[in-house]
Amino acid sequence: MAASYRYTVIGVLAKKKQNGSYGSGPDTQPFVPFASMERDFPPPERPGIIRGFVSNIVFEPVSPELHEQAVGQVYRILAERHHFDPRDKEALWVWDTLQGAKFTERIFAVMTFFFGALALLTLALGGIGVMNIMLVAVTERTREIGVRKALGATTVDIRRQFLAESAIITLVSGIAGLVLGVGICALLRIVPLPDAMPHPVISPFAILASLSTPPLITLFAGTYPALRAANLSPMECLRTE
Do residues 236 and 149 touch, judged by C-beta distance below 8 A? Predict the structure, then answer.
Protein backbone atom coordinates (compact mmCIF):
# COMPACT_ATOMS: atom_id res chain seq x y z
CA MET A 1 0.00 0.00 0.00
CA ALA A 2 1.40 3.39 -0.98
CA ALA A 3 2.33 5.78 1.80
CA SER A 4 0.34 9.01 2.19
CA TYR A 5 1.71 12.42 3.18
CA ARG A 6 -0.08 15.50 4.46
CA TYR A 7 0.64 18.81 2.74
CA THR A 8 -0.78 22.28 3.33
CA VAL A 9 -2.14 24.03 0.23
CA ILE A 10 -0.90 27.62 0.27
CA GLY A 11 -2.23 28.73 -3.10
CA VAL A 12 -3.83 27.75 -6.40
CA LEU A 13 -2.35 28.76 -9.75
CA ALA A 14 -4.52 30.67 -12.18
CA LYS A 15 -5.78 28.62 -15.10
CA LYS A 16 -3.39 28.80 -18.03
CA LYS A 17 -4.22 28.03 -21.65
CA GLN A 18 -0.78 26.69 -22.42
CA ASN A 19 1.57 23.84 -21.75
CA GLY A 20 3.68 25.19 -18.91
CA SER A 21 5.04 22.01 -17.31
CA TYR A 22 7.00 20.31 -20.10
CA GLY A 23 4.51 17.67 -21.18
CA SER A 24 1.33 18.47 -19.28
CA GLY A 25 -0.55 21.54 -18.18
CA PRO A 26 -0.08 23.10 -14.73
CA ASP A 27 -3.80 22.79 -13.95
CA THR A 28 -3.52 19.11 -12.96
CA GLN A 29 -0.17 19.09 -11.16
CA PRO A 30 0.79 19.85 -7.56
CA PHE A 31 3.97 21.83 -6.93
CA VAL A 32 6.00 21.25 -3.76
CA PRO A 33 9.37 22.50 -2.48
CA PHE A 34 12.32 20.45 -3.66
CA ALA A 35 13.33 19.62 -0.09
CA SER A 36 9.89 18.13 0.62
CA MET A 37 9.89 16.13 -2.59
CA GLU A 38 13.42 14.86 -1.89
CA ARG A 39 12.35 13.79 1.59
CA ASP A 40 9.03 12.14 0.75
CA PHE A 41 9.50 10.96 -2.85
CA PRO A 42 13.17 10.17 -3.35
CA PRO A 43 14.02 8.63 -6.74
CA PRO A 44 15.19 5.00 -6.70
CA GLU A 45 18.91 4.37 -6.44
CA ARG A 46 20.64 3.19 -9.58
CA PRO A 47 24.29 2.45 -10.35
CA GLY A 48 26.14 5.74 -10.34
CA ILE A 49 23.09 7.70 -9.13
CA ILE A 50 22.24 8.37 -5.51
CA ARG A 51 19.04 9.59 -3.97
CA GLY A 52 18.37 13.29 -4.23
CA PHE A 53 19.74 13.99 -7.71
CA VAL A 54 18.38 16.79 -9.93
CA SER A 55 17.12 15.51 -13.28
CA ASN A 56 15.89 18.76 -14.81
CA ILE A 57 16.99 22.41 -14.69
CA VAL A 58 14.90 25.21 -16.16
CA PHE A 59 16.51 28.58 -16.81
CA GLU A 60 15.52 31.72 -18.69
CA PRO A 61 17.86 34.34 -20.20
CA VAL A 62 17.23 37.95 -19.25
CA SER A 63 16.55 38.78 -22.92
CA PRO A 64 16.34 36.89 -26.24
CA GLU A 65 19.44 38.73 -27.45
CA LEU A 66 21.52 37.09 -24.68
CA HIS A 67 20.13 33.62 -25.34
CA GLU A 68 23.30 32.14 -26.85
CA GLN A 69 25.49 33.59 -24.09
CA ALA A 70 23.16 32.20 -21.39
CA VAL A 71 23.24 28.70 -22.87
CA GLY A 72 27.04 28.90 -23.12
CA GLN A 73 27.33 29.90 -19.46
CA VAL A 74 25.16 26.96 -18.38
CA TYR A 75 27.32 24.58 -20.41
CA ARG A 76 30.52 25.99 -18.90
CA ILE A 77 29.26 25.80 -15.29
CA LEU A 78 27.94 22.24 -15.62
CA ALA A 79 31.04 21.15 -17.55
CA GLU A 80 33.27 22.44 -14.75
CA ARG A 81 31.27 20.61 -12.08
CA HIS A 82 30.73 17.36 -13.98
CA HIS A 83 33.98 17.22 -15.93
CA PHE A 84 33.03 17.29 -19.60
CA ASP A 85 33.99 19.48 -22.52
CA PRO A 86 31.68 22.54 -22.66
CA ARG A 87 31.97 22.48 -26.45
CA ASP A 88 30.44 18.99 -26.55
CA LYS A 89 26.80 19.67 -27.40
CA GLU A 90 25.96 15.98 -26.98
CA ALA A 91 26.94 15.98 -23.30
CA LEU A 92 23.62 17.56 -22.28
CA TRP A 93 20.13 17.23 -23.64
CA VAL A 94 18.74 20.75 -23.92
CA TRP A 95 15.20 21.61 -24.87
CA ASP A 96 15.71 25.08 -26.27
CA THR A 97 12.27 26.65 -26.46
CA LEU A 98 13.66 29.84 -28.00
CA GLN A 99 15.04 27.88 -30.94
CA GLY A 100 11.64 26.24 -31.26
CA ALA A 101 10.02 29.68 -31.26
CA LYS A 102 12.43 30.87 -33.97
CA PHE A 103 11.68 27.76 -36.02
CA THR A 104 7.94 28.38 -35.65
CA GLU A 105 8.46 32.02 -36.64
CA ARG A 106 10.29 30.91 -39.79
CA ILE A 107 7.43 28.52 -40.61
CA PHE A 108 4.90 31.33 -40.32
CA ALA A 109 7.13 33.63 -42.38
CA VAL A 110 7.27 31.04 -45.17
CA MET A 111 3.50 30.56 -44.93
CA THR A 112 2.99 34.33 -45.13
CA PHE A 113 5.23 34.50 -48.20
CA PHE A 114 3.37 31.57 -49.79
CA PHE A 115 -0.07 33.07 -49.20
CA GLY A 116 1.19 36.46 -50.38
CA ALA A 117 2.45 34.91 -53.61
CA LEU A 118 -0.87 33.07 -53.94
CA ALA A 119 -2.73 36.36 -53.48
CA LEU A 120 -0.60 38.06 -56.15
CA LEU A 121 -1.23 35.15 -58.52
CA THR A 122 -4.97 35.40 -57.84
CA LEU A 123 -4.88 39.16 -58.52
CA ALA A 124 -2.99 38.57 -61.76
CA LEU A 125 -5.57 36.00 -62.87
CA GLY A 126 -8.33 38.44 -61.92
CA GLY A 127 -6.63 41.15 -63.96
CA ILE A 128 -6.44 38.82 -66.95
CA GLY A 129 -10.16 38.11 -66.53
CA VAL A 130 -10.96 41.83 -66.49
CA MET A 131 -8.80 42.30 -69.59
CA ASN A 132 -10.69 39.56 -71.43
CA ILE A 133 -14.02 41.12 -70.44
CA MET A 134 -12.92 44.51 -71.74
CA LEU A 135 -11.58 43.02 -75.00
CA VAL A 136 -14.94 41.32 -75.55
CA ALA A 137 -16.65 44.64 -74.78
CA VAL A 138 -14.47 46.40 -77.37
CA THR A 139 -15.32 43.75 -79.97
CA GLU A 140 -19.06 43.90 -79.26
CA ARG A 141 -19.17 47.71 -79.18
CA THR A 142 -17.05 48.40 -82.24
CA ARG A 143 -19.93 50.12 -84.04
CA GLU A 144 -20.64 52.26 -80.97
CA ILE A 145 -17.00 53.36 -80.95
CA GLY A 146 -17.27 54.32 -84.63
CA VAL A 147 -20.42 56.34 -84.03
CA ARG A 148 -18.83 58.21 -81.14
CA LYS A 149 -15.73 59.01 -83.19
CA ALA A 150 -17.88 60.13 -86.10
CA LEU A 151 -19.72 62.49 -83.75
CA GLY A 152 -16.45 64.04 -82.56
CA ALA A 153 -15.13 61.84 -79.77
CA THR A 154 -11.35 61.92 -79.63
CA THR A 155 -8.94 59.08 -79.04
CA VAL A 156 -8.44 60.32 -75.48
CA ASP A 157 -12.21 60.20 -74.86
CA ILE A 158 -12.48 56.57 -76.02
CA ARG A 159 -9.45 55.52 -74.01
CA ARG A 160 -10.75 57.30 -70.92
CA GLN A 161 -14.17 55.64 -71.30
CA PHE A 162 -12.81 52.09 -71.33
CA LEU A 163 -10.33 52.80 -68.54
CA ALA A 164 -13.21 54.11 -66.43
CA GLU A 165 -15.22 50.95 -67.11
CA SER A 166 -12.24 48.79 -66.12
CA ALA A 167 -11.84 50.85 -62.94
CA ILE A 168 -15.51 50.36 -62.05
CA ILE A 169 -15.27 46.58 -62.50
CA THR A 170 -12.11 46.26 -60.41
CA LEU A 171 -13.36 48.70 -57.74
CA VAL A 172 -16.67 46.91 -57.26
CA SER A 173 -14.93 43.50 -57.20
CA GLY A 174 -12.27 44.74 -54.76
CA ILE A 175 -14.78 46.28 -52.36
CA ALA A 176 -16.92 43.12 -52.48
CA GLY A 177 -13.90 40.95 -51.71
CA LEU A 178 -12.77 43.25 -48.91
CA VAL A 179 -16.21 43.31 -47.29
CA LEU A 180 -16.46 39.52 -47.57
CA GLY A 181 -13.02 38.94 -46.05
CA VAL A 182 -13.49 41.41 -43.19
CA GLY A 183 -16.96 40.00 -42.56
CA ILE A 184 -15.65 36.43 -42.29
CA CYS A 185 -12.88 37.55 -39.90
CA ALA A 186 -15.37 39.50 -37.78
CA LEU A 187 -17.69 36.48 -37.68
CA LEU A 188 -14.87 34.18 -36.58
CA ARG A 189 -13.99 36.61 -33.78
CA ILE A 190 -17.38 36.09 -32.15
CA VAL A 191 -17.55 32.35 -32.79
CA PRO A 192 -16.08 30.28 -29.92
CA LEU A 193 -12.93 28.49 -31.07
CA PRO A 194 -10.68 25.90 -29.36
CA ASP A 195 -7.98 27.29 -27.09
CA ALA A 196 -5.25 26.14 -29.48
CA MET A 197 -6.81 28.11 -32.38
CA PRO A 198 -6.47 31.90 -32.08
CA HIS A 199 -9.07 34.26 -33.48
CA PRO A 200 -8.16 35.98 -36.76
CA VAL A 201 -6.79 39.51 -36.59
CA ILE A 202 -7.78 42.16 -39.13
CA SER A 203 -4.53 43.79 -40.22
CA PRO A 204 -4.62 47.49 -41.25
CA PHE A 205 -1.73 46.77 -43.62
CA ALA A 206 -3.77 44.07 -45.38
CA ILE A 207 -6.71 46.47 -45.74
CA LEU A 208 -4.46 49.20 -47.19
CA ALA A 209 -2.87 46.68 -49.56
CA SER A 210 -6.29 45.48 -50.74
CA LEU A 211 -7.40 49.08 -51.34
CA SER A 212 -4.26 49.88 -53.33
CA THR A 213 -4.55 46.91 -55.71
CA PRO A 214 -7.63 48.02 -57.77
CA PRO A 215 -5.74 50.95 -59.41
CA LEU A 216 -2.88 48.61 -60.29
CA ILE A 217 -5.26 46.02 -61.74
CA THR A 218 -6.99 48.80 -63.72
CA LEU A 219 -3.70 49.89 -65.25
CA PHE A 220 -2.70 46.28 -65.93
CA ALA A 221 -6.01 45.03 -67.30
CA GLY A 222 -7.60 48.12 -68.81
CA THR A 223 -4.80 49.85 -70.67
CA TYR A 224 -4.50 47.45 -73.62
CA PRO A 225 -8.26 47.18 -74.33
CA ALA A 226 -8.59 50.98 -73.99
CA LEU A 227 -5.72 51.57 -76.43
CA ARG A 228 -7.17 49.02 -78.84
CA ALA A 229 -10.56 50.74 -78.76
CA ALA A 230 -9.04 54.20 -79.11
CA ASN A 231 -6.95 53.24 -82.15
CA LEU A 232 -9.87 51.83 -84.15
CA SER A 233 -10.66 53.66 -87.39
CA PRO A 234 -14.17 55.21 -87.53
CA MET A 235 -14.74 53.88 -91.08
CA GLU A 236 -13.82 50.31 -90.10
CA CYS A 237 -16.01 50.54 -87.00
CA LEU A 238 -19.07 51.74 -88.96
CA ARG A 239 -18.68 48.93 -91.54
CA THR A 240 -18.78 46.34 -88.74
CA GLU A 241 -22.12 44.60 -88.34
Answer: no
